[in-house]
Amino acid sequence: MKFGFLFEKSIMLKRRPLGDHGLEVSEIGFGAWAFGGEWGEQSDKDSVGALHAALDAGVNLIDTAPGYGDGRSERVIAQVLASRTDHPLVATKTPPAPGPWPPSPYCRWQDRYSAAYLRENVQQRLQQLGTERIDLLQLHTWTRAWNEDPQPLLVLRRMKEEGKIRLVGVSAPEQDPNSVIPLMQTGLVDVVQVVFNLFQQEPAAELFAAAEESGTGVIVRVALDEGALTGKYKADHQFAETDFRRAYFAGDRMERTVKRVQAIADDVARFGLTERYHLADVALKFALSPSAVSSVVVGMRNVQQVSQNIATSSLPDLPEALLQVLQRHNWHRGVWYAGK
Predict the structure, then answer these.
(1) Is the peptide bond prior to 105 cis by the omega test (within 30 degrees of 0)?
(2) Higher local confidence (pLDDT), 2 or 243
(3) So what's the pLDDT on residue 7?
(4) Each residue of 311-333: pLDDT tens digit?
(5) pLDDT of the residue at 10
(6) What is the mean pLDDT of residues 195-219?
């Protein structure tokens, strides 16, 4: 079923293997966090239109979570999919029970991801999404403190055997992405989701190689650093009170970020690529450059953003020489999600 959203015929949305699980996903995936309203006011009409447009264009991976608007994002996705005949892969998440975020080294999995809690939450995800099986269920965060006794993942794998989950995953904590490598190596997870962008390049150290060796799918998030790497913000930009980025870029963070984004733009200009690649294209192509990456999920709030983001897939890969230069923008800046 088509919904009338037209894109240039030259746009070819490429697909990549999702690890060794026999599935292929669009290299640009749909990030549905904004559907919940945490990125400022968002109408369901715009959300529905954006998702229909993305699916019509060939996107077949949607990433969401119950925390995105207290289930609002999941409900909008369920509404859209109920009206279509295609079957994209929908990835959602189970958050830990209330406690520190990210989990501290002293958190016990029994308090954050007990078997009873996991089963109840997965049942809620099934109901919210209007499905009998979750395509990809990801624990929304993790701590290496649980690696020696990863019982929560054993519970999810039993639910996979029961037919309630197709694939098991973990959304790696941004401050310690390599904490999930042992889980990959022992086959406890089918897919990992990690932050990887021009500023945060730590997964390139070990995680990507471990993913290829273990056949684990890799979903990249925050490829645009919450919009900063598009180059559209000025140093004095202020986000709305309802936009989580107001805290993410609090204090002098936006000013510092903009200076670094300009340095990236200068590198791209030196290679003579400014007219062909927008900064957002460069950021997405960089995130897609490791062969271990299956898909990069990008937030898309309207049809225009869908068109812009999927067009990146048709562009040639960045020159290897430029990729090498862009590695210099790796930035050890701590966990900005905790606020200023």
Answers:
(1) no
(2) 243
(3) 52
(4) 999 999 999 999 999 999 999 98
(5) 52
(6) 98
Q: What is the mean pLDDT of the chain?
A: 95
Could you give the count of Cα atoms lying within 13 Å of 41 in the half-sphere of its Cβ?
A: 2
Q: Which of 68, 233, 248, 277 is catalytic?
A: 68
Tokens representing 234?
A: 């000025």
**How far is residue 314 from each of residues 60, 228, 305, measured CA to CA in Å?**
16, 22, 15
Is residue 230 within 8 Å of residue 278, measured between CB atoms?
yes
Tokens of 317: 């890969």
Would you say the C-alpha torsion 251, 252, 258, 260 has a positive or negative sign? negative
**CA atoms of 292 and 301, how far apart (whole Å):** 27
113 classed as catalytic: no
- The answer to whether 280 and 224 are in contact (CB under 8 A) is yes
Domain 15-338's class?
alpha beta
* % the chain with pLDDT above 90: 93
Segments making up each domain of the chain, as ranges: 15-338
Cα dist from 192 to 66, 160, 203, 214, 255, whole Å: 18, 16, 11, 12, 32
